[in-house]
Amino acid sequence: MRPYSQVIEQLRNAGLRPTRQRLALAKLLFENSPRHVTAETLHAEAQAASVPVSLATVYNTLHQFTDAGLLREVVIDPQRSHFDTTTTNHGHFYFEETGTLQDIPASDVVLAKMPSLPAGTKATSVEVVVRLSAN
Amino acid sequence: MRPYSQVIEQLRNAGLRPTRQRLALAKLLFENSPRHVTAETLHAEAQAASVPVSLATVYNTLHQFTDAGLLREVVIDPQRSHFDTTTTNHGHFYFEETGTLQDIPASDVVLAKMPSLPAGTKATSVEVVVRLSAN
DNA sequence: ATGGTACATTAGAAATGATATAAGATGTTG
DNA sequence: CAACATCTTATATCATTTCTAATGTACCAT
């Protein structure tokens, strides 16, 4: 059994070597997928799991995974970047008090129609963001 | 004719004095509304218009206007915050190459239904973001 | 397999850049 | 004029990026 053969394959396709750090972070990310992390929270998790990895490497890895299509960056928090293991278009709830994210079930977000795009452009993502505060 | 009576009124309602700087920034913002700015671009505009105002004041003013409901903060760019003179819920195109924003006509963004919210929360905004790259 | 070489990757520290804060100077209101 | 808000400049903060030396990895030839 080779639990990461798929991730390894995707890393190779992206020209990324399957290093110890990348595999450890991939394990944390995808073993409990779907989930959302920030560089800080993932770094803290790695430390807690006794995976020695520097914060700079966490940042690099998150961006490399994003470029490789394994993650999606979610820009929703003015303070920090979030990353999502679900890479298909979908919406998010953002809890303003806690700064955490939650996926909106795809069935709950239905765009009646796709807006017509400016000439010469193509859409790289379509996202619906609902900001929430305590009631 | 008092071109800013409305803005002055709204500032007063928010407990903000209509100072020279605030009125000058309001003029830049709302005279060519609807529009989008960042702290940097608005500061540069003020300088160009010979309105001496510090960058710190621009930041403060943008947030005060946002709290007063005159502006809306748009979180869409991992690098900086954008502010929009249109405060009602609406969508944005984000041009990844240039980092600029453009409103999506409201008629073009129609949510088939509002997602059901987690218990104990209320939505403070609903936004649709379409990221664009060159075709 | 083994050793070697080129190159990718990592870590830690330092740099960067947007934004926030502090303290003193200035403006505004009553 | 007194009380207080606002502005400015400089400084602080914090997330993120960059730099550089050390280390790891892949590929090649033996």
Oligomer class: homodimer
What is the N-to-C order of secondary-structure elements of chain A (H for helix, E for strand)? HHEHHEEEEE
Say which CATH homologous superfamily of the largest domain in chain A is assigned.
Answer: Winged helix-like DNA-binding domain superfamily/Winged helix DNA-binding domain
Under CATH, the topology of the largest domain in chain A can be stated as: Arc Repressor Mutant, subunit A
Mean pLDDT of chain A: 91
The overall strand count of chain A is 6
Count of runs of 4 or more consecutive helical residues of chain A: 4
Low-confidence stretches of chain A: none
Distance between the termini of chain A: 48 Å
Structural class of chain A: alpha+beta
- The main sheet of chain A orders its strands as 1-3-2
CATH top-level class of the largest domain in chain A: Mainly Alpha
> Most extensive chain contact?
A-B, 39 and 39 residues
- Shape category of chain A: globular
- Helix percentage range of chain A: 25-40%
The portion of residues forming beta strands of chain A comes to: 15-25%
Major sheet of chain A: 3 strands, antiparallel
CA-based gyration radius of chain A: 16 Å
CATH structural architecture of the largest domain in chain A: Orthogonal Bundle
